[in-house]
Amino acid sequence: MNIGNFNLLKDGTYIIAELSANHNGKIQNALDSIKAAKDIGANCIKLQTYTADTITLDSDNKDFMIDGGTLWDGKKLYDLYKEAYTPWEWHKELFAYAREIGVDIFSSPFDKTAVDFLEQFNPSAYKIASFEITDYELIKYVASKGRPIIISTGIATIDEIQDAVDICRNEGNNDIILLKCTSAYPAPLEEANLRMIPNLAQTFNVTSGFSDHTLGSTAPISAVTLGAKVIEKHFILDKSIGGADADFSMDKEEFANMVKAIRDVEKLVGKVDYSMTEKKKQSRRFSRSLYVAKDIKKGEVFTEENIRSVRPGYGMHPKHHRRIIGKKAIKDYDFAERFHG
Fold first, then answer.
1. Radius of gyration of the chain from its Cα atoms, rounded to whole angstroms
2. Which of 127, 146, 193, 227 is deepest in the core (most CB within 10 A)?
3. Owning domain of residue 137
């Protein structure tokens, strides 16, 4: 599967810098963030496309007030989203700039009007946020566009995940990536449950990855060792910018260190390979093999004392040692001579 020009099978881990609200209402912050994401090695900068009116209702009803121990307790949903949204009139410039400097860009739409709006920019993929996984009509509409669809599973039951996957496939869209996600901000490490990353891939026959809300880089780096092909992390130029998501976002230095660590881990994980590489062949000279440990005259019996398995590895394979012991020499052998039978 490709996201833009990135091949998930061949090119490693696709790393998404999630801008979210981290522009804090200033387009220059958004543009600078795109440039920074490119510079520190992210593959993509991701936006969120909604307005307060497309995502909730302007109501003071208790149902629309935030509580439950979040960073935003006491705020009205409508006010939070009004503060955090990315103005739609910025999108054209942001998409154009990202493409000009060579970093991928797409967005999370939160309703059908956002999808229709984003289509004009020919995005390389769409992302369904965790809290929208139960919006089956939105998933169906996004899947119908035929682009790779990345779905966070933070609040979903296993049946809802299956429903989302089935909806995509029924639309003829099999380019599905499920992200393990813990929908807490920030998320406790003990709730990350990274073992679900390979299980998502196996259970639903999809590509899997990790959308991370923990603090630090331990979780996303570990996720790569478990097979995550996509990593998403909130990114902010500098936490002094402030904003709704600043507290659980990585700044430029932190994100750059995470990217480097992930690229190093990719090299470490490697692939299943039992072949004899040139390095292995070279190193085998330090392995054990059979050597003559004492001078041996023709007719003498080979023993544990005069034929030994020692380093280096230029002689006969040690597996033949037992077969040799007890036989008679058919010629003279000198001390430290490679034994070849």
1. 29
2. 127
3. 11-50+85-269
